[in-house]
Amino acid sequence: MNNMNSCSGHEALPGTIVEFMDMARNALGQSPDIVYREIIVGFKPMVIIYIEGLADPQGVLEALHQDMSFYSEGQRLSSEELFQLLQERTITMGKIGVAETIGELEEKVLCGSTILYIDGLRKVLYAGTEALKQRGVEEATSQSVVRGPREGFTESLRENTALVRRRIQNRKLRLEQRKIGTETNTQVAIMYMQGICDEEVLAELRRRLDQIRLDSVLESNYIEEMIQDRRYSPFPTVYNSERPDVIASALLEGRIAIFVEGTPFVLVVPALFVQFFQSSEDYYQRGDFSSLVRLLRYLCFGIALFTPSFYIAITTFHQEMLPTNLLVSLIGQREGVPFPAFVEAVIMEVTFEILREAGIRLPKSIGQSVSIVGTLVIGQAAVEAGLVSAAMVIVVSITAISNFALPSFNVGISARMLRFVLMGIAASFGLYGIVIALIILGLHLCSLESMGVPYMTSFAPIRWSSQKDALLRLSQRTKNKWTRLLMNWQETRE
Predict the structure, then answer these.
(1) How many CB atoms lie within 10 A of CB 377?
(2) Residue 176 belongs to what domain range?
(3) From residue 392, how far is each of 312, 381, 488 by CA, in Å?
(4) Which residues does residue 115 pair with via DSSP β-bridges, in sequence order?
(5) Which of 71, 73, 91, 430 has the fewest Cβ atoms within 10 Å of its own Cβ atom?
(6) pTM, full prediction
(7) Are 248 and 370 in the same domain?
(8) pLDDT 10s digits, 241-297
(9) Pairing between β-strand 173-180 and β-strand 34-41 as defined by DSSP bridges
């Protein structure tokens, strides 16, 4: 019993307090933040175990102190009788239970519970006394809106699920929880609307989660990489958000939310292409204005993806497509530039990516200033030094601003990666290469799936009934009560 390193987590607990203390210290360690408190209650030796900072045993200790006179003045109780009294009378916490194995004991202590062991028994009583300090509910930083709720998720899984339940007070809302990560035992929960979400999608998600074999799960991206359909596609097939209203809306549309302990970003599956161009603010503004802004986002995606490659192709191979005055102006600007248009574009794009990353990593007080000043100074100096043309600076600037207009950070990264590929194709084959690349890109998008749901649902094949919330955001009166895009896919499959 003393060598607990060789013991299985399913082994029963010892029956004496001496053996129990040896077992606990070998299993949990001699860390100074683990408290082993020996007391006597009802003439019986007892051990209390908890972790400082992770558990708050004050309620348990106060309850024992208040009933101490009752146990000392009454008749001598057996260990089993004392255990029953503690469980039914003294310990009044909402979460209370019994653990009978070493593995259960370790799990409860490490989760923040307070353990009570009575000499002579092979089981312990645990009370839910979790007291880990959490960041308060603050405004979401990655998906800000002008009009709408300001709440954002925190790093607490239970706090996050409560924020969603406050918005959907419906008995159909279901929550399932499991642990993933052999070393971290991270809590992962899935939430869905029973009767609204697709049962086949739900079963597929459960299967993929159960197949995950990781040592640690420290952020939701660990789960995202393991459940996504195409690991090497530049386009994301799992959506994420830190806004409770976005997750509530996704649940009502028939999607499934995945919560991970320790991160404010909640995953949503299945994710469709149109979803990455939608913002929660679309539904807090008038339909005509939201439709205009949504169309602008699609335009910005096209600008961010194709503008540098179009510029390279036209100035390198297809100068006859430009008006004469514009062509003369561009030739004059490029007269002293020693590099071809492709190299010029790569230099500017790489420089801007460096400035963008530097602005993110620097402290907020100086990050934005450095990014703005660095872009202006370097761009102006590069033009004056004759390294790049003024037109190329304009092209790269418009491309970068359009990238920032996209509501989803993930799809913005996709545009940034594909942009360099398209620039190389344009420098090699001109507009013909861009057209071929566009066809291949369209075929790739149509081949993608998210949890078995076609990625381009509502566009390929096109269904007019699903256009109420795809390219445009029509009036709330014209949309279905619950699901929109996902229901149309289900009807097509049936």
Answers:
(1) 10
(2) 157-271
(3) 9, 13, 44
(4) 49, 126
(5) 73
(6) 0.81
(7) no
(8) 989 989 998 998 889 999 998 889 999 999 888 888 888 887 888 878 888 888 999
(9) unpaired
